[in-house]
From TrEMBL:
One of its GO terms (molecular function) is zinc ion binding. SUPFAM superfamilies: DHS-like NAD/FAD-binding domain. It is found in: Cytoplasm. It catalyses: N(6)-acetyl-L-lysyl-[protein] + NAD(+) + H2O = 2''-O-acetyl-ADP-D-ribose + nicotinamide + L-lysyl-[protein]. The lineage of its organism: Bacteria, Bacillati, Bacillota, Erysipelotrichia, Erysipelotrichales. It comes from Absicoccus porci. NAD-dependent protein deacetylase which modulates the activities of several enzymes which are inactive in their acetylated form. It is an enzyme of class 2 (transferase). Belongs to the sirtuin family. Class U subfamily. It comes from the Bacteria. This is NAD-dependent protein deacetylase.
Length: 242
């Protein structure tokens, strides 16, 4: 039996699947990840990328923050790939109960998935820091001033993306919902993540179900604890396993 056949068998036998995903899920939609050889962290900027997407840098250098953010982290034309579509199909079949994602691109919802816990927020949701008015991505892009900083049309203050920056905590409600889903799952499929970003990566330790499956092009620190490890394209694996 091949690995994909084994995964298909487990999916077929399961009625409570949770998918936990990272940047590798969206690289097949031409959205770069952070840590690979071609990732954001390997590019040369005036400041380290990690610094530019920190809360303190956002507050002290909003112009440079937004120049980096809009040029390197926003991909409005990106479309769901085979992995996103396969997961949406699994949800429609009644097998997939939740997606827990570290991604901020909203592609799971664009593919049709309904239950998506976005640990690191979403670029599609933005809020004025003063009056708390909400704006979608198109409205936020259109609200940029001459320095490229999006400003609230209602009060003139800065619009901040609902994305978790470095130095900021994850949303507690999202974490609790994600942990609850993982604890109840009988099959946990982890894909497209190096499992080195905490606290997000630590959530899979709450899994108590039958089978843990890891799908990632590179090895992860959790490979030796999984029931099945597949080093291949996540879109190809999921499409062929359903």
């Amino acid at each position: 039996m091949t690995d994909i056949e084994q995964l298909h068998q487990w999916i077929d036998a399961s009625n409570n699947i949770v998918f936990f995903g990272g940047a590798g899920v969206s690289t097949e939609s031409n959205i770069p990840d952070f840590r690979s050889d071609n990732g954001l962290y390997k590019k040369q900027y005036r400041y380290p990328a990690e610094q530019m997407i920190s809360h303190s840098f956002f507050l002290s250098n909003p112009e440079e923050f937004y120049e980096f953010y809009f040029n390197q982290m926003i991909f409005p034309d990106a479309q769901p790939n085979a992995a996103h579509k396969a997961l949406a199909k699994l949800e429609k079949m009644g097998k997939l109960k939740a997606i827990v994602t570290q991604n901020i691109d909203g592609l799971h919802q664009k593919a049709g998935s309904k239950v998506v816990y976005e640990l690191h927020g979403s670029v599609l949701k933005n809020t004025c820091m003063h009056c708390h008015a909400h704006y979608d991505l198109e409205q936020t892009i259109a609200a940029r001033d001459e320095k490229g900083i999006p400003r609230c049309p209602k009060c003139g203050n800065i619009i901040k993306p609902n994305v978790v920056l470095y130095e900021e905590g994850l949303d507690e409600g999202t974490i609790y919902a994600a942990v609850d889903a993982i604890e109840k799952a009988d099959l946990l499929i982890v894909g497209g993540t190096s499992l080195v970003v905490y606290p997000a990566a630590g959530l899979i330790r709450y899994f108590r179900g039958k089978h843990l499956v890891l799908i990632n092009r590179d090895a992860t620190p959790m490979d030796d604890q999984a029931d099945l490890v597949i080093h291949d394209s996540i879109g190809k694996v999921l499409s062929n396993a359903i």
